Amino acid sequence: MSTPLTSENLRLAPKVVLHDHLDGGLRPQTLIDLAKETGYDRLPSTDAGTLATWFRESANSGSLERYLETFAHTVGVMQTRDAITRIAAEAAEDLAADGVVYAEVRYAPEQSQQKGLGLDEIVEATQEGFALGASRAAADGRTIRVGTLLCGMRQADRSQEIAELAVRHRDSGVVGFDIAGPEAGFPPTRQIDTFEYLRQENMHFTIHAGESFGLPSVWEAVQRCGAERLGHGVRLADDVTVGEDGSVKLGEVASYVRDRRIALEMCPSSNLQTGAAKSLEEHPFPLLAAERFRVTVNTDNRLMSDCTVSSEFGLLVEAFGYGWEDVERFTLNAAKAAFIDYEDRRALIDDVLIPAYQALAGDGS
Ligand SMILES: O=c1[nH]cnc2c1ncn2[C@H]1C[C@H](O)[C@@H](CO)O1
Ligand SMILES: [Zn+2]
């Protein structure tokens, strides 16, 4: 018999998240504690409940630029080694508690230098935190592995430095690179030399594209920069035409992305907040999933969207009637697109995910 697809069972099911920002996932109380400890005096509230609501409501702005303004407060407390380690440890614990077995968590090290920390020190403090969080989760009976993506910020000019930092730390848990920040006016080709460098170093990278800017941004990210995955990529749907008879026709960019199995790191709640999608019903997730794009389900920012990986799955299950076989497919999509070694991906898929979803779907019982 199949296990009922409830929110609690979704939480217990093993999941993979590829797009989760460290500075978008702080616990509200931690933010308050760290603001006090580090002398950050600009928090909108020192009550955890009020602060959580403030983030959710402020991020719910309909604009990516305004959504991004809320990060000044989280980044504001990520300026000491201890604060960064605590935040990373809690992120690993919170993801593990939500049933995530493999996570790629990203952040922009250049934003943690307000008090003079060095870039390498920031990466070391983060890695230390993830290791600590994973070992605390293990003590609680949960297994999680965390890979890190380092982000260059599109509006700044430090991507090359950050890419070199990622390459330097590739043997201690950094698995890839990304560019984040405002999309309009900052095309990924501004950093084209950095992407060329990363390819020469055999380093993986994803690019936030097709979120607040349209199809040209997706095309540039894929064809000019060589992105292996797309952060969001919702506007790819502009290249998918659904006829009156329900027939679906893909344009060249969409075809290429589907043919090459370029993963789409979809984050439904975040998309609703930034206006990348008007409503869940109009979100391109079900269309792209039905057309067998490599869609994955992600949080983007757990604090700003007040979500978890399992709650994002829950939204999609409720809106589009997905079953365990769909949850499994989206999870396997994420495992296949992870930036870890092939052997590790295979082990994750064969030894962890497939047996668990067989049991959930009631196969062989
Ligand atoms: O959805 C997003 N689009 C573009 N940039 C984003 C998004 N979510 C977070 N960021 C930015 C704000 C963070 O400070 C930065 C690094 O995690 O990435
Ligand atoms: Zn993001």
UniProtKB/TrEMBL annotation:
Where are its TM segments located? Answer: none
Catalysed reactions listed for this entry:
adenosine + H2O + H(+) = inosine + NH4(+); 2'-deoxyadenosine + H2O + H(+) = 2'-deoxyinosine + NH4(+)
Q: Which residues bind substrate?
A: 21, 23, 181
Please name the InterPro entries in this protein's record.
Answer: A_deaminase, A_deaminase_dom, Ado/ade_deaminase, Metal_Hydrolase
Query: Pfam families in the record, alphabetically?
Result: A_deaminase
Q: What does this protein do?
A: Catalyzes the hydrolytic deamination of adenosine and 2-deoxyadenosine.
Protein family? Belongs to the metallo-dependent hydrolases superfamily. Adenosine and AMP deaminases family. Adenosine deaminase subfamily.
Q: Which NCBIfam families does this one have? A: aden_deam (TIGR01430), PRK09358.1-2 (NF006847)
Name the record gives this protein: Adenosine deaminase
Organism (species): Actinoalloteichus caeruleus DSM 43889
